[in-house]
Amino acid sequence: MHSPKSVTQFGPENNKLMNEKHIPVLVGCGQITEKDVEPQDARNPLQLIVDAIRSAAEDTSRAKPLIEAIDTIAAVGLAIDAVYPPSPIAGHYANLPKSIANQLGIEASKLYYTAAGGNTPQMLVNHFAEQIAQGQTSTVLLAGGEALRTMSQIQRYQLPMDGWIDSPGGEAMSIGDQRPATSAYENEYNLFPPANTYPLFENALQVKYQRSHQEHMTRVGEIYAGLTKVAASNPYAWFQQERSADQLLTVSKDNRMIAYPYTKLLNSIIQVNQSAALILTSLAKAKELGIPEEKYVYLHGCGDAHDIWNLSERVDYCSSPALNRIGKEALQMAGKSIDEIDLFDIYSCFPSALEIACDELGIAHDDPRGLSVTGGLPYFGGPGNNYSMHAIAEMMNKLRAEPGKFGLLNANGWFVTKHAIGIYSTTPLKQTWQRKDPSSYQADILSNAGPKLVETPDGNATIETFTVLYNREGPERGFIIGRLENSHRFLADTPNDPDTLNSLLDSKTIGRKGTVSHSGGKNIFIPRG
Predict the structure, then answer these.
(1) 288 and 408, same domain (yes or no)
(2) Considering only CA atoms, which of 256, 203, 148 is closest in space to residue 504?
């Protein structure tokens, strides 16, 4: 016969405790933005990250016991460690999460280092929330940061990179999709830089929306002017300056055209010194550590997926089946409709990324709820792969200030390629946390294949989308994605003479006909008319 004590072990209170061990909750967040510091006085990436972690620990009101409870550290991959293009200083931090652990004076049993991609911060929250729900880990530190502004200054002035190297031993586990962003074929046409790629989506969207170039860009400018207003009041923003749509769109010495139709001020700013950290634990552990309940922010819904990987093989350049699907999955998991969400942070590295996300999630481009809690990557700052860590931290603070509201954010990796989404609230979960396995819907997303790709095309062809790349003097290179008469797709440059390049800067360029041939190792498309 069981004693009364044994019976109570399986009573309602114990069941509640067991459930709380499997309910993930964010309890701390911290951010650092370092501006106006001489390079010799600036912090290196590791210092920035550790300072953000200490801020996140202090945010819990139980810093010391919280740090001691960390059993898992996941560090977001540094920009210098991207698979392509290789950096001469890649691997300077041989085991970044171990370096972080050493700085904090702790021994975490699990160390992770992510693949490149702006989706990774939200992907990490989703992944480790599931790990906590399954009882596989207890307290997780998520952190990342960049000192790219300082690094560029150091390289410009040929200063020593003291403190930018650490080899603490061991090897972190890799997490995330490590495939390179672009294929060898795409690299031949220099499609890796996002500034060269996102304009292809923008010009396709203009046609989708059936707008003139001027009307379309006026709408884009208005959206991004709204982001600058948010950044102007954010103390962590890199550019705390409100700008009008006209200021963002007008070409000037300080706002030159980068790739048609984007001026410099519509491009994500990567040369920043910023870091952010989050602390994720179980509800039971949070209570055990004495963290005040007003600090708790719950992940109510989430999803992860990727679109057809290579840009040249997409179905089109104005949609994202993956983002559409994970939006539905996350909302269903949270038991919410998009109309019931109060706050958004829509990934905004370039306008086309934001527009596509809004379209797929069912959010108006001029939604009165606003599209960013940070001010967006061109104005808040785009610290490599780690921007969304800041967005989650900002979302946490805003939700804490308005308990009961719900916030949604999406994170985007590469070129509308990798996606993660999260729905947050201070409202407690009503049941044990469980999400649908992303692998259960990933194959369905990829089932609609794009057109056949031809690497050496020849014959009559039509422009599917395009951009014109600029240097400081003016138009430099025309690039198109085109279709042959049999609908097969190809990549091609155009002749770079001024008449051809200027002729592309027209609202009717998409759909324009011409001929394509392969010569000198490149495809060349010659437009007619």
Answers:
(1) yes
(2) 203
